[in-house]
Amino acid sequence: MASLRKTHPLIKIANDALVDLPTPSNISAWWNFGSLLGLCLITQILTGLFLAMHYTSDISTAFSSVTHICRDVNYGWLIRNVHANGASFFFICIYMHIARGLYYGSYLYKETWNIGVVLLLLVMMTAFVGYVLPWGQMSFWGATVITNLLSAVPYMGDMLVQWIWGGFSVDNAT
């Protein structure tokens, strides 16, 4: 008699995907970081959505709204800390994922590697925007320093910085 996990249609799908899945013999724990990145991304999106429900984006009230989230919103302190520490864990997983790719020679697959580099740059830009959102002193000066790096671009650097700032200094338009 055949076992239930091989005959029942729904259980068979789970069995084929989790139990009887063919796996290379040289697989190691290093191959988990891609899945951990997916889990971190889902956590970041969910906690970010919950934080966005109470966040105000105006520079005069942004810091107050973050304080309001931490002090007055039920479990807001927990959601904010999970979001902030999740971002750090996300980057740890990214760096470990890149290290595994370098160690195993994944850079030889040029298209896949180039897409990974583009994704890394996009994640870094997104993290910078998230760093600036609370609009405290660290956020303000972080935005000022990082956007001023673009002023080193020859001929058009200053115009590029003013365009990103939306004026002549880091302000509400930024």
From TrEMBL:
The chain crosses the membrane at residues 29-52, 87-107, 113-133, 140-165. SUPFAM superfamilies: Transmembrane di-heme cytochromes. InterPro entries: Cyt_b/b6_N, Cytb/b6-like_sf, Cytochrome_b_N_euk/bac, Di-haem_cyt_TM. Keywords: Electron transport, Heme, Iron, Membrane, Metal-binding, Mitochondrion, Mitochondrion inner membrane, Respiratory chain, Transmembrane, Transmembrane helix, Transport, Ubiquinone. One of its GO terms (molecular function) is metal ion binding. GO terms for biological process: mitochondrial electron transport, ubiquinol to cytochrome c. GO terms for cellular component: mitochondrial inner membrane. Its main location: mitochondrion. Residues 1-174 form the Cytochrome b/b6 N-terminal region profile domain. It is found in: Mitochondrion inner membrane. It is a multi-pass membrane protein. The keyword Mitochondrion applies. Pfam families: Cytochrome_B (PF00033). PANTHER family: CYTOCHROME B. Component of the ubiquinol-cytochrome c reductase complex (complex III or cytochrome b-c1 complex) that is part of the mitochondrial respiratory chain. The b-c1 complex mediates electron transfer from ubiquinol to cytochrome c. Contributes to the generation of a proton gradient across the mitochondrial membrane that is then used for ATP synthesis. This is Cytochrome b.
